[in-house]
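Q: Here's a chain of 317 amino acids. Please give me its 3D structure as tokens.
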Amino acid sequence: MADYYNVLLTLQADVAQNYFALRSLDAEASIVAATVSLRQQQVQLVRSRFEGGIGNDLDMARAETELATTEADAASIARRRNELENALAVLVGSNPSSFRVSALATTNWSPAPPSIPAGLPAELLERRPDVAEAERQLASANARIGVAKGAFFPVVTLTASGGYLSGEIQSLFNWDSHVWSIGPSISLPIFAGGRNRANYKRSQAAFEESVARYRQLVLVAFGDVENSLAGIRHLTDESAAQQRAVANARRAADLATDRYRSGIVSYLDVVDASREALQAERDNARLAGQRLNAAVQLIKALGGGWEQSTLAAARPK
């Protein structure tokens, strides 16, 4: 069952990550669509200035180039969104041709990732399918050692009725045969060329191997959690800085456009400022998706969520 739960957890994480990536593209698509409208307005502005004898052919070429480039970006985003939508359809077992996820029409998509409580117990890692499977293999190897030890001691009744010593015990010391044979139920070789001892050592070696594998998987689990937590922490700082960059880039683009209308700067300044604003906004949308995906990775690393109901949930059997 551990393989089943491992596949299920991976599937759920893949669905969530593809969905958040799709929503991030939706936000980018909205940003680029708004920028296309802005570029069209800029083309009209440059054309009117050119027709009024103020602008020049170079400004017109730049404005139309930026418009065409932004339209190409919009088509590229639509293509990648369609690919993610098809991937989601496959993950949920639906026909891609009939599976649709409604577009998210907003340029301010910035959902907050789930809050991570302090003091998450390390025992959560025991729910991970790989760790749970290794633990069961370890227990099985330990049990095999017990069986191997038991082969040295035949199972007999020590006492008979009335508190007397069982006759089975006396029969054990019949050295006429190399095989203990007590009635129809007991038959054990006592001279087998060290086979029992070899079996015991083999079981011990298998147990030690299982211990090493279990410890390695636990270390990997701790590493996955640490990587996810570090990613969440750094992405949070990056997102805060990126939001400041978006605000300043938008302000710079508005100022450049106003100064161009007043004839203070060339259209090249408008192009540069507008391009930087668009890039900052798209990066911000990508970061929002990356933060959500980092939370998904943490949940996967823990083997599930961290709600109170899941903390006490039984591990996969």
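Q: Can you summarize the key feature?
A: DSSP finds seven helices and two strands in the chain.
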